[in-house]
Amino acid sequence: MTRLYLSPPDVGPDERELLLDAFDSNWIAPLGPHVDAFEAEFATAVGMDHAVALSSGTAALHLALLLAGVGPGDEVVVPTLTFVATANAVRYVGATPVLVDSEWASWNLDPGLVAETLDARRAGAGAGAGAGTRPRPKAVISVDLYGQCADYSPLRAACEGDGDGVVLIEDAAEALGATYMDRPAGSLGDMGVFSFNGNKIATTSGGGMLVTNDGDAAAQARSLSTQARRPVLHYEHDEVGFNYRLSNLLAAVGRGQLRNLSAKVDRRRRTAEMYQKLLADTAGITFMPEASFGRATRWLTVALIDPEQFGPGRTRDDVIAALEAEDIEARPAWMPMHRQPVYADAPVVGGTVADAIFEQGVCLPSGSAMTDADVERVAAVVQRVAGR
Ligand SMILES: *Cc1c(COP(=O)(O)O)cnc(C)c1O
Fold it and tell me: What CATH code would you report for 261-385?
């Protein structure tokens, strides 16, 4: 039997045809018609006016923070339960990440905690002894974890506050194809960020996208991503830019992935449903819930293993080891940022929900090329560890 990976790339004839078209047209070097077309098609798919194709999701986060005017001395609220790239981008611009806990309903940023955090910090920065010396909250990066949107109505309200406008950046790297109240993931904040890394729901081997309704911001992002070169012949620059643009070859692959997006989401959702059905009678195993406000992509199916109820004394690590012995890849849920050595000094608000998800969470194989038989094979191993 072949090894089952967590979320491997899933490409087919569309990607091959488009890639060869890019190759044969000799538009190998950066930019070209596939980049423009990918941006236009992507913007339509996520319901935003502008999309800027970049070399990674991390680059898109970095540029989003620069466009939001975030810099040294500012604070940015990020979920403690996320992949490290979200918090790292805050450090790239010299700001401080404030790590906020998740809610159980979606496993994403707890909107109540975000409102409390922003209110307390607005008050601290603006009034009383030492007024103006405390860092000001400038932005919130909300993550749509494992393909499920955060709760954007209350998050937006918290960011609007009393009109001082904290910028809301949606890190939808894991959520292409998800919706929140029938609106597409990526369109729910002031800017949206996507990743086309090899394990994401749509891949270009590596790549990212920044989406916005603000034409000036999109133009600024394009400029910053190409060394901030002024539109003159002689290589003139009035600010420090980056080399963050997506290549034309990779954009061609991305267009193929987009054509097949809904089938990919449907397969991942079917996989999640199957795991839940097959393991419904196994004590001590529960799954990431789907919040009533949206439709998740189920980028990864994540199960919680409660060692008190599951097979005698068996933990999520035992599940991962048993799967590995059968040549099946599984991984723990994201380790919260407040437990990372690199963020040991970052301010934290709460953390018990993220801790519990990390301690018990296991991500099961969820790739869009999986078959029903593959899902059954994984579930059978999990059941065996549980002693059934
Ligand atoms: C994958 C991911 C990123 C980073 O994307 P890259 O394209 O790998 O740079 C950022 N945030 C989240 C939540 C991710 O899962």
Answer: 3.90.1150.10
